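thread: overnight batch results

M.L. [08:02]
morning all. the overnight job finished for the chain we discussed friday. pasting input first so we're all looking at the same thing
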Amino acid sequence: MSYFPSLILKRKYSVVVYDVYPDALNNIGIHEGSLIYKAWAKINKWIYRNADRVYTLSEGMATLLLAYCGRDKILVIPNWMGMGSLPRIEKMENPFILKHDLLHKFVVMYSGNIGFTHNVASIIEIAETFREDDDIVFLIIGEGLKKAELMLWVKEKGLENCSFLSWQPSEELKYSLSAADVSIITLTDETALVSVPSKTYNLLAVGSPLLCIAPEESELARLVEEHGCGKCFTKEKVIEMSHFVRELKANHNLWKSYSDSSLKASLSYTYRNAEQYVS
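M.L. [08:03]
and the structure it wrote out:
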């Protein structure tokens, strides 16, 4: 709601849209017919119509914004990684790997918010298919409203291949992200077009192959397909996701191909994108 003061401040302004609201409220059961949704949409139309520019992160998000203003006012500028440099750290030199005894493990990692807008439950379903594989571990890093539920589910299923960690210090981010042999990014159906997970760009920067759990029409799926840096699956395709993990573990050349594609893709999502706001 930070852009709402534009209603009363008599200044030239622009709006940067990282997540499309009120559309994203569908995740918590607030739909188009509700009073708050209708009021928010009405405010958007006034603010966006009078804005100098409306910036957003993807063409999919730009399409959603057409409900509030004309396409000629919308500029798409992709986001970029959140740190100046995130080089991939090899396992033998990675203190995070050594600290958590992951040197001889194939690490499937989810790092980020564990909340309503993420299909985090699918991660546990995938992990269950690897119950008998001692050398494949699922590491879930972060906090959120669904974390306690996931931890309980893992305990009830007796999954010893799943571990949970809290947020890692920012100065250790390059080590924790580099520890992943496969990185998982998730979105719910409701957030397919309204959001692009910002962690995506950091994961590309460390050369991580991506396993994305999101609708086929999502911007995330488009990004992965365009750059060839991983695969995107809908949430019910647990067996297919398991096969993808097994393929990457068994075929190092395939893994390296995806890793190299991630590194190459990251060059399109650097701080240089910020210059587009200035120009």
